[in-house]
Amino acid sequence: MNSTNDTGVVAGPASGRTGRTHRFRGLVGTGLMATLAAVVATTLAAALAQAVGVDFEVSDGGETIPLSGFAVVTGFFSVVGIVIAVALLRWSARPAERFMWTAVSLTAISFVPPLLAGANTAATTALLGLHLVPAAVMIPTLARSLRTRTG
Q: From CA 75, how far away is CA 28, in angstroms rounded?
């Protein structure tokens, strides 16, 4: 007697692969949502700074950083942060802790260019503050996501 009932068959990928893929996808999804929030927050903060008179002129030639420049750079480096988080999730025994140290260190290093840009005091101060806006969004979000994905 042949039975067409396959209730004993388990469908799905081989052991362990689904869980790891789900962790990475969840981290990337959370990171991309945080990136969008960081881009919006940074661009709004830059627009507010411009509204109160900060000109963002950063060189002797009179180059001014446009609002779109803040959005693009914030988006790019936020995605770099996601890549770092994914790598640490894959290869570190303590990814959240390592991510915090790495991200805070990179944020501190990011303060160097505004200090060397030759901008006036208001623009330099605003640029330093604008480095903290996406850091305040991305670092805690990704670190929290790393903790929940490994715990």
A: 14
